[in-house]
Amino acid sequence: MPEPHHRFLRACLRLPTDRVPIWIMRQAGRYLPEYMAVRKQAGDFLSLCKNPELATQVTLQPVDRFGLDAAILFSDILVVPEAMGMGLNFGLGEGPILDPAINAPGDVEKLRVIDPEQDLDYVMNTIRTIRRELADRVPLIGFSGSPWTLATYMVEGGSSKTFSRIKGMMYDRPEVLQALLDRLVDAVTRYLNAQIRHGVQAVQIFDTWGGVLGHDEFLEFSLESMRRIVAGLERTGPDGAVVPVILFAKGCGSHLERMAASGCDVVGLDWTTDLAQARLRVEGRVALQGNMDPAVLSATPERIRREAERTLKAYGPHPGHVFNLGHGITPDCTPRKVAALVEAVQGFSFGSASS
Predict the structure, then answer these.
(1) How confident is the model over 50-86, as pLDDT tens digits?
(2) What mean pLDDT value characterizes the chain?
(3) Residue 112 falls within a domain, yes or no?
(4) Residue among 31, 35, 69, 76 flagged as catalytic
(5) What does the pLDDT look like over 286-307, one tens digit per residue?
(6) If I label 344, which of 58, 161, 212, 219 is the partner at 20 to 30 A Cα–Cα?
(7) What's the predicted TM-score (pTM) here?
(8) CB under 8 Å to 11, separation ≥6 — which residues?
(9) 26 is catalytic
(10) 198 lies in which domain range?
(11) CATH number for the domain that contains residue 145
(12) Which pLDDT score, from 0 to 100, does residue 350 have?
Protein backbone atom coordinates (compact mmCIF):
# COMPACT_ATOMS: atom_id res chain seq x y z
CA MET A 1 0.00 0.00 0.00
CA PRO A 2 1.55 3.36 -1.02
CA GLU A 3 2.53 5.83 1.69
CA PRO A 4 0.38 8.99 1.90
CA HIS A 5 1.91 12.25 0.73
CA HIS A 6 -0.08 14.61 2.97
CA ARG A 7 1.86 15.47 6.15
CA PHE A 8 -1.27 15.15 8.33
CA LEU A 9 -1.91 11.59 7.18
CA ARG A 10 1.77 10.73 7.43
CA ALA A 11 1.88 12.00 11.01
CA CYS A 12 -1.22 9.95 11.88
CA LEU A 13 0.61 6.85 10.70
CA ARG A 14 3.84 7.83 12.50
CA LEU A 15 5.73 8.40 9.26
CA PRO A 16 8.39 11.13 8.89
CA THR A 17 7.13 14.63 7.97
CA ASP A 18 8.86 17.84 6.94
CA ARG A 19 7.19 19.61 9.91
CA VAL A 20 4.45 18.98 12.45
CA PRO A 21 1.01 19.29 10.82
CA ILE A 22 -1.72 21.40 12.41
CA TRP A 23 -5.48 21.40 12.30
CA ILE A 24 -7.77 22.76 15.01
CA MET A 25 -10.93 21.31 16.51
CA ARG A 26 -13.90 23.57 15.72
CA GLN A 27 -11.73 25.40 13.18
CA ALA A 28 -14.86 26.33 11.19
CA GLY A 29 -16.99 28.30 13.61
CA ARG A 30 -18.35 31.47 15.09
CA TYR A 31 -15.00 33.19 15.60
CA LEU A 32 -14.78 33.65 11.81
CA PRO A 33 -16.79 36.54 10.32
CA GLU A 34 -17.07 34.69 7.01
CA TYR A 35 -18.63 31.73 8.85
CA MET A 36 -21.19 33.98 10.50
CA ALA A 37 -22.13 35.42 7.12
CA VAL A 38 -22.79 31.96 5.67
CA ARG A 39 -24.68 30.87 8.79
CA LYS A 40 -26.93 33.91 8.44
CA GLN A 41 -27.51 32.96 4.81
CA ALA A 42 -28.47 29.42 5.84
CA GLY A 43 -30.96 30.69 8.43
CA ASP A 44 -29.89 28.54 11.38
CA PHE A 45 -27.19 26.10 12.43
CA LEU A 46 -28.98 22.86 11.53
CA SER A 47 -29.99 24.22 8.11
CA LEU A 48 -26.33 25.04 7.52
CA CYS A 49 -25.34 21.47 8.38
CA LYS A 50 -27.92 20.12 5.92
CA ASN A 51 -26.94 22.35 2.98
CA PRO A 52 -24.00 20.66 1.17
CA GLU A 53 -22.94 23.77 -0.74
CA LEU A 54 -22.93 26.05 2.31
CA ALA A 55 -21.41 23.37 4.57
CA THR A 56 -18.62 23.02 2.02
CA GLN A 57 -18.00 26.76 2.10
CA VAL A 58 -17.56 26.87 5.86
CA THR A 59 -15.43 23.70 5.85
CA LEU A 60 -13.00 25.36 3.45
CA GLN A 61 -12.94 28.82 5.08
CA PRO A 62 -10.28 28.11 7.75
CA VAL A 63 -8.17 26.11 5.30
CA ASP A 64 -8.21 28.99 2.83
CA ARG A 65 -7.60 31.66 5.50
CA PHE A 66 -4.89 29.97 7.58
CA GLY A 67 -3.33 27.29 5.37
CA LEU A 68 -4.13 24.48 7.80
CA ASP A 69 -2.96 20.93 7.07
CA ALA A 70 -6.39 19.28 7.14
CA ALA A 71 -10.04 20.15 6.70
CA ILE A 72 -12.74 18.67 8.92
CA LEU A 73 -16.25 18.01 7.70
CA PHE A 74 -18.69 20.66 8.89
CA SER A 75 -21.57 18.90 10.59
CA ASP A 76 -22.75 18.08 14.12
CA ILE A 77 -22.55 14.91 16.18
CA LEU A 78 -26.30 15.03 16.90
CA VAL A 79 -27.34 14.36 13.32
CA VAL A 80 -26.99 10.66 14.26
CA PRO A 81 -29.70 10.67 16.97
CA GLU A 82 -31.91 12.67 14.62
CA ALA A 83 -31.42 10.07 11.89
CA MET A 84 -32.41 7.41 14.44
CA GLY A 85 -35.77 9.15 14.90
CA MET A 86 -35.29 11.75 17.63
CA GLY A 87 -36.44 15.32 17.22
CA LEU A 88 -33.53 17.77 17.14
CA ASN A 89 -33.45 21.52 17.28
CA PHE A 90 -31.07 24.14 18.55
CA GLY A 91 -32.85 26.63 20.75
CA LEU A 92 -31.53 30.18 20.53
CA GLY A 93 -28.91 30.41 23.27
CA GLU A 94 -30.08 27.11 24.78
CA GLY A 95 -27.99 24.53 22.96
CA PRO A 96 -29.36 21.33 21.44
CA ILE A 97 -32.72 19.88 22.42
CA LEU A 98 -33.56 16.23 21.67
CA ASP A 99 -37.14 15.12 22.10
CA PRO A 100 -38.47 12.85 23.43
CA ALA A 101 -35.58 11.92 25.71
CA ILE A 102 -34.66 8.27 26.10
CA ASN A 103 -35.86 6.92 29.43
CA ALA A 104 -37.17 3.36 29.09
CA PRO A 105 -36.43 0.16 27.11
CA GLY A 106 -39.34 0.97 24.81
CA ASP A 107 -37.70 4.27 23.89
CA VAL A 108 -34.55 2.43 22.81
CA GLU A 109 -36.55 -0.08 20.78
CA LYS A 110 -38.23 2.73 18.85
CA LEU A 111 -34.90 4.03 17.54
CA ARG A 112 -34.41 3.37 13.84
CA VAL A 113 -31.53 1.42 12.36
CA ILE A 114 -29.97 4.07 10.17
CA ASP A 115 -29.07 3.83 6.51
CA PRO A 116 -26.50 6.64 6.16
CA GLU A 117 -26.88 6.71 2.38
CA GLN A 118 -30.52 7.77 2.80
CA ASP A 119 -30.96 9.11 6.34
CA LEU A 120 -27.76 11.18 6.21
CA ASP A 121 -27.48 11.67 2.48
CA TYR A 122 -26.82 15.41 2.93
CA VAL A 123 -23.63 14.57 4.84
CA MET A 124 -22.48 12.27 2.05
CA ASN A 125 -23.25 14.96 -0.53
CA THR A 126 -21.24 17.45 1.53
CA ILE A 127 -18.24 15.08 1.66
CA ARG A 128 -18.26 14.64 -2.10
CA THR A 129 -18.55 18.39 -2.65
CA ILE A 130 -15.73 19.18 -0.22
CA ARG A 131 -13.41 16.64 -1.83
CA ARG A 132 -14.12 18.15 -5.24
CA GLU A 133 -13.45 21.69 -4.05
CA LEU A 134 -10.37 20.76 -2.01
CA ALA A 135 -8.81 19.17 -5.10
CA ASP A 136 -6.45 17.19 -2.82
CA ARG A 137 -4.84 20.32 -1.32
CA VAL A 138 -5.24 18.83 2.16
CA PRO A 139 -6.99 15.72 3.50
CA LEU A 140 -10.58 15.72 4.76
CA ILE A 141 -11.39 14.42 8.25
CA GLY A 142 -14.79 12.89 8.98
CA PHE A 143 -16.15 12.39 12.47
CA SER A 144 -18.84 11.20 14.83
CA GLY A 145 -19.60 11.49 18.49
CA SER A 146 -18.86 8.44 20.62
CA PRO A 147 -21.78 6.26 21.75
CA TRP A 148 -21.43 7.46 25.36
CA THR A 149 -21.37 11.13 24.37
CA LEU A 150 -24.35 10.72 22.03
CA ALA A 151 -26.20 8.79 24.73
CA THR A 152 -25.73 11.64 27.22
CA TYR A 153 -27.63 14.02 24.95
CA MET A 154 -30.27 11.43 24.11
CA VAL A 155 -31.02 10.56 27.75
CA GLU A 156 -30.65 14.07 29.17
CA GLY A 157 -32.67 15.56 26.31
CA GLY A 158 -29.86 18.02 25.57
CA SER A 159 -26.86 19.49 27.33
CA SER A 160 -26.27 18.83 31.02
CA LYS A 161 -24.05 20.02 33.83
CA THR A 162 -24.74 17.13 36.21
CA PHE A 163 -25.51 14.16 33.90
CA SER A 164 -27.85 12.94 36.63
CA ARG A 165 -30.35 11.26 34.30
CA ILE A 166 -27.85 9.20 32.33
CA LYS A 167 -25.77 8.37 35.40
CA GLY A 168 -28.93 7.34 37.22
CA MET A 169 -29.68 5.03 34.30
CA MET A 170 -26.12 3.72 34.35
CA TYR A 171 -26.27 2.78 38.03
CA ASP A 172 -29.92 1.68 38.36
CA ARG A 173 -30.74 0.35 34.88
CA PRO A 174 -27.44 -0.48 33.19
CA GLU A 175 -29.17 -2.90 30.83
CA VAL A 176 -31.17 -0.02 29.31
CA LEU A 177 -28.05 2.09 28.85
CA GLN A 178 -26.18 -0.84 27.33
CA ALA A 179 -29.01 -1.47 24.88
CA LEU A 180 -28.81 2.18 23.83
CA LEU A 181 -25.02 2.02 23.49
CA ASP A 182 -25.34 -1.12 21.37
CA ARG A 183 -27.70 0.70 19.01
CA LEU A 184 -25.28 3.60 18.84
CA VAL A 185 -22.25 1.39 18.17
CA ASP A 186 -24.08 0.06 15.12
CA ALA A 187 -25.21 3.51 14.00
CA VAL A 188 -21.81 5.19 14.38
CA THR A 189 -20.02 2.30 12.65
CA ARG A 190 -22.42 2.52 9.71
CA TYR A 191 -22.10 6.30 9.61
CA LEU A 192 -18.31 6.43 9.66
CA ASN A 193 -18.00 3.65 7.10
CA ALA A 194 -20.32 5.59 4.79
CA GLN A 195 -18.18 8.69 5.28
CA ILE A 196 -15.10 6.66 4.34
CA ARG A 197 -16.80 5.26 1.23
CA HIS A 198 -17.67 8.79 0.14
CA GLY A 199 -14.13 10.09 0.53
CA VAL A 200 -13.07 11.21 4.01
CA GLN A 201 -9.39 10.38 4.49
CA ALA A 202 -9.35 10.10 8.30
CA VAL A 203 -12.04 9.86 10.97
CA GLN A 204 -12.20 11.13 14.53
CA ILE A 205 -14.47 9.83 17.28
CA PHE A 206 -15.29 12.60 19.77
CA ASP A 207 -15.90 11.38 23.31
CA THR A 208 -16.58 14.82 24.70
CA TRP A 209 -18.16 13.58 27.93
CA GLY A 210 -16.03 10.51 28.71
CA GLY A 211 -14.31 12.52 31.43
CA VAL A 212 -17.47 12.70 33.57
CA LEU A 213 -17.28 8.94 34.19
CA GLY A 214 -15.46 7.13 36.94
CA HIS A 215 -12.50 4.91 36.10
CA ASP A 216 -14.35 1.60 35.73
CA GLU A 217 -17.43 3.21 34.20
CA PHE A 218 -15.36 4.82 31.45
CA LEU A 219 -13.90 1.46 30.51
CA GLU A 220 -17.27 -0.29 30.49
CA PHE A 221 -19.61 2.31 29.05
CA SER A 222 -17.39 4.45 26.84
CA LEU A 223 -14.10 2.90 25.79
CA GLU A 224 -15.55 -0.54 25.06
CA SER A 225 -18.11 1.00 22.69
CA MET A 226 -15.40 2.97 20.89
CA ARG A 227 -13.21 -0.14 20.64
CA ARG A 228 -16.07 -2.00 18.95
CA ILE A 229 -16.52 0.83 16.45
CA VAL A 230 -12.81 0.91 15.61
CA ALA A 231 -12.89 -2.86 15.03
CA GLY A 232 -15.83 -2.44 12.64
CA LEU A 233 -14.42 0.36 10.49
CA GLU A 234 -13.32 0.05 6.89
CA ARG A 235 -9.73 1.18 7.23
CA THR A 236 -9.09 1.51 3.49
CA GLY A 237 -10.59 4.28 1.38
CA PRO A 238 -11.91 4.05 -2.20
CA ASP A 239 -8.44 4.96 -3.50
CA GLY A 240 -6.81 2.11 -1.58
CA ALA A 241 -5.19 4.42 0.99
CA VAL A 242 -5.18 3.78 4.74
CA VAL A 243 -7.81 5.79 6.64
CA PRO A 244 -6.42 6.66 10.10
CA VAL A 245 -8.74 6.60 13.11
CA ILE A 246 -8.41 9.19 15.89
CA LEU A 247 -9.90 8.78 19.36
CA PHE A 248 -10.39 11.94 21.36
CA ALA A 249 -11.77 11.54 24.88
CA LYS A 250 -11.74 14.80 26.83
CA GLY A 251 -10.56 14.48 30.43
CA CYS A 252 -9.45 10.87 30.01
CA GLY A 253 -5.65 11.09 30.01
CA SER A 254 -5.43 8.51 32.79
CA HIS A 255 -6.77 5.95 30.29
CA LEU A 256 -4.17 6.74 27.63
CA GLU A 257 -2.60 3.28 27.48
CA ARG A 258 -6.00 1.61 27.14
CA MET A 259 -7.07 4.01 24.41
CA ALA A 260 -3.80 3.33 22.58
CA ALA A 261 -4.62 -0.39 22.72
CA SER A 262 -8.08 0.12 21.20
CA GLY A 263 -6.91 -0.33 17.62
CA CYS A 264 -6.92 3.37 16.76
CA ASP A 265 -4.03 5.12 15.00
CA VAL A 266 -4.06 8.40 16.93
CA VAL A 267 -5.08 9.40 20.45
CA GLY A 268 -6.11 13.02 20.94
CA LEU A 269 -5.15 14.63 24.25
CA ASP A 270 -6.57 17.55 26.16
CA TRP A 271 -4.30 20.04 27.91
CA THR A 272 -4.38 18.25 31.28
CA THR A 273 -2.07 15.47 30.05
CA ASP A 274 1.69 15.94 29.89
CA LEU A 275 2.58 15.43 26.23
CA ALA A 276 6.17 14.34 26.83
CA GLN A 277 5.05 11.70 29.31
CA ALA A 278 2.23 10.64 27.02
CA ARG A 279 4.66 9.91 24.20
CA LEU A 280 6.64 7.63 26.51
CA ARG A 281 3.50 5.96 27.84
CA VAL A 282 2.17 4.89 24.43
CA GLU A 283 5.56 3.40 23.46
CA GLY A 284 5.18 4.17 19.76
CA ARG A 285 1.90 2.29 19.37
CA VAL A 286 -0.07 5.34 18.24
CA ALA A 287 0.45 8.92 17.14
CA LEU A 288 -0.64 11.70 19.50
CA GLN A 289 -2.74 14.76 18.71
CA GLY A 290 -2.82 17.94 20.76
CA ASN A 291 -2.68 19.48 23.17
CA MET A 292 -2.45 23.24 23.79
CA ASP A 293 -5.07 24.79 26.07
CA PRO A 294 -7.61 26.67 23.87
CA ALA A 295 -7.53 29.50 26.42
CA VAL A 296 -4.01 30.34 25.26
CA LEU A 297 -5.67 31.92 22.23
CA SER A 298 -6.90 34.71 24.51
CA ALA A 299 -3.27 35.69 25.18
CA THR A 300 -0.92 37.89 23.14
CA PRO A 301 0.49 36.57 19.86
CA GLU A 302 3.92 36.37 21.49
CA ARG A 303 2.60 34.20 24.33
CA ILE A 304 0.71 32.06 21.82
CA ARG A 305 3.97 31.48 19.96
CA ARG A 306 5.80 30.51 23.15
CA GLU A 307 3.07 28.09 24.20
CA ALA A 308 3.00 26.52 20.73
CA GLU A 309 6.76 26.01 20.85
CA ARG A 310 6.50 24.56 24.34
CA THR A 311 3.96 22.01 23.10
CA LEU A 312 6.08 21.10 20.10
CA LYS A 313 9.22 20.68 22.18
CA ALA A 314 7.35 18.57 24.72
CA TYR A 315 6.71 15.95 22.03
CA GLY A 316 10.14 16.43 20.53
CA PRO A 317 11.63 15.62 17.11
CA HIS A 318 9.84 12.30 16.79
CA PRO A 319 7.33 11.12 14.18
CA GLY A 320 3.69 10.88 15.09
CA HIS A 321 2.66 14.31 16.37
CA VAL A 322 -0.37 16.21 15.06
CA PHE A 323 -0.60 19.68 16.61
CA ASN A 324 -4.05 20.65 17.84
CA LEU A 325 -5.73 22.35 20.73
CA GLY A 326 -6.83 20.28 23.70
CA HIS A 327 -10.44 21.05 22.74
CA GLY A 328 -12.23 23.31 20.28
CA ILE A 329 -11.71 27.00 19.54
CA THR A 330 -14.05 29.15 21.61
CA PRO A 331 -16.35 31.66 19.86
CA ASP A 332 -14.68 34.66 21.53
CA CYS A 333 -11.37 33.92 19.83
CA THR A 334 -10.20 36.21 17.01
CA PRO A 335 -8.82 35.14 13.63
CA ARG A 336 -5.64 37.13 14.35
CA LYS A 337 -4.84 34.86 17.29
CA VAL A 338 -5.44 31.69 15.25
CA ALA A 339 -3.19 33.05 12.51
CA ALA A 340 -0.45 33.61 15.10
CA LEU A 341 -0.79 30.01 16.29
CA VAL A 342 -0.67 28.52 12.81
CA GLU A 343 2.33 30.65 11.85
CA ALA A 344 4.15 29.57 15.01
CA VAL A 345 3.59 25.87 14.39
CA GLN A 346 4.32 25.98 10.68
CA GLY A 347 7.45 28.07 11.20
CA PHE A 348 8.86 25.89 13.98
CA SER A 349 11.92 23.72 13.54
CA PHE A 350 13.88 21.99 16.27
CA GLY A 351 17.11 23.36 14.84
CA SER A 352 16.00 27.00 15.19
CA ALA A 353 13.56 26.91 18.13
CA SER A 354 13.82 29.84 20.46
CA SER A 355 14.63 29.16 24.10
Answers:
(1) 999 999 999 999 999 999 999 999 999 999 999 999 9
(2) 96
(3) yes
(4) 76
(5) 999 999 999 999 999 999 999 9
(6) 58
(7) 0.96
(8) 17, 20, 21, 287, 319, 320, 321, 322
(9) yes
(10) 7-248
(11) 3.20.20.210
(12) 77
Average pLDDT over residues 135-143: 97
Of the residues 30, 173, 235, 281, which is catalytic? 30
- 141, part of any domain: yes
Residue 285 covered by a domain: no
Catalytic annotation on 281? Answer: no
Residue 122 bears catalytic tag: no
Is 190 inside any structural domain? Answer: yes
* 248-280 core/surface letters (b: 16 or more CB in 10 A; e: else): bbbbbbebbeebbebbbbbbbbbbebebeebbe
Which candidate in 14, 35, 131, 153 is catalytic? 153
Going by pLDDT thresholds of 50, 70 and 90, the confidence category of residue 351 is low
pLDDT score of 355 more than 50: no
Number of domains in the chain: 1
Rounded Cα distance, 127 and 321, in Å:
26
Farthest-apart Cα atoms in the chain, separation: 62
Catalytic residue at 303?
A: no
| Residue 263 predicted with pLDDT over 90 | yes
Active site includes 153?
Answer: yes
Q: State the catalytic residue, choosing from 19, 26, 281, 306.
A: 26
Give the active site residue among 10, 14, 39, 131.
39
Which segments of the chain does DSSP mark as H helices, in order?
7-12, 33-42, 45-49, 52-66, 79-83, 105-110, 116-119, 121-134, 147-156, 164-172, 174-198, 215-218, 224-232, 256-260, 275-282, 301-315, 335-346
pLDDT over threshold 60, residue 46: yes
